[in-house]
Write a structure and sequence with these properties.
By secondary structure, the chain is α+β, with helices and mostly antiparallel strands. It is built from eight helices and six strands. The strands form three sheets. A two-stranded parallel ribbon has the order 1-6. The protein has a two-stranded antiparallel ribbon with strand order 2-3. The protein has a two-stranded antiparallel sheet with strand order 4-5. Bound molecules: copper (II) ion.
């Protein structure tokens, strides 16, 4: 079996071009399903929309996010709790396998965006970083009332259409429109810095009571509910537009952000080899979906991976660099 190498999109043009090409192919790959099959209503009279393989990953994320664990809790089956890192690691693995399939390259590794390297620069320059160039993800949305992306491979005139969107109240809608971004740099908000990342990598344990947005420990700092340094959440908030919704995997930048988050988890694991994933299987039932051997929320497969399955993936991929 080929072990893929995940590389820095800021410096590896080959990985960058392959990722862009793979995204376009998955976005064009019709599944025969529509938003009607999932009973998703049309926004402002929008008829049922066709769903591509890419769009199904958006739905998977939405389903996991809308699964409160336990019911009624702030914590859900992919966020605001310990499973945040293993669930997204699993999502990335399945997306990467689909990219390998459409690219016919079993060794393709998902690239990562080391946003802290951009965060170390001035806030004004961050929207011009390599990741936002025309040949990469394209840049900020237009300044008008609709902040549609106008440059790069996923621009409004490229044919890239968003089909599912969740509004501020968490309701899901079928839509048919270009991708939205509205960078917060104009408001003086900067990306996380290398110093923020290094401080997070020191933290122990992996996670702890109350296992949510108020927890001390590594997971919550990296997920970004702690103040003042947001890390993962701050990247979503900084890009705004589609990156801010529960349907954030619409924007190809989502996976570059999460690949970097996954890299930071791998770096933490390497730095603290004796620190276990927590909670273990003896934790109470209200932590269902977050304990070591609990099945995670699946979508494409009958069998669900567990956090335990995600702890050592070195036979599947490695990162070109774990140092910051
Ligand atoms: Cu997520």
């Amino acid at each position: 079996m080929t072990v893929g190498i995940r590389r820095d999109i800021r410096s590896d043009d080959g990985a960058r071009d392959a990722y862009v090409q793979g995204v376009i192919r998955l976005k064009q790959e019709d599944t025969g399903l529509t938003t009607g099959d999932f009973r998703i209503p049309g926004f402002a009279g929008t008829p049922p929309q066709p769903l591509s393989t890419w769009d199904l990953f958006v739905l998977w994320h939405l389903v996991a996010m809308n699964t409160s664990t336990p019911p009624g809790a702030d914590r859900n089956a992919a966020h605001v709790g310990p499973v945040f890192l293993p669930w997204h690691r699993w999502m990335l693995l399945l997306l990467e396998a689909n990219l390998q399939r459409v690219l016919r390259d079993a060794g393709f590794g998902l690239p990562y965006w080391d946003w802290a390297a951009d965060g170390d620069g001035s806030v004004d320059e961050q929207p011009q970083a390599p990741v936002w160039k025309r040949e990469c993800m394209g840049g900020d949305g237009s300044a008008g009332s609709e902040p549609f992306v106008t440059t790069g491979p996923f621009a409004a005139d490229s044919g890239f259409r968003v089909r599912v969107w969740s509004d501020e109240e968490g309701r899901v809608w079928a839509v048919d429109r270009p991708l939205r971004r509205r960078f917060r740099a104009g408001e003086g908000l900067g990306l996380p810095t290398t110093a923020d990342v290094k401080a997070a990598l020191e933290l122990l344990p992996y996670d702890t009571e109350p296992w949510d947005r108020n927890s001390d420990g590594f997971r919550n700092r990296l997920e970004g509910w702690t103040r003042p340094t947001g890390l993962h959440n701050l990247v979503h908030v900084w890009a705004r537009g589609d990156m801010e919704a529960a349907t954030s995997p619409n924007d190809p930048v989502f996976y570059l952000n999460h690949c970097n988050v996954d890299r930071l988890w791998a770096a933490w694991q390497a730095e603290h080899p004796d620190a276990p994933y927590l909670p273990g299987d003896d934790a109470p039932g209200d932590l269902l979906r977050h304990r070591l051997s609990d099945p995670m929320v699946a979508f494409f497969t009958d069998t669900a991976a567990t956090p335990a399955d995600m702890l050592d993936v070195s036979s599947i991929y490695t990162y070109d660099r774990l140092t910051m």
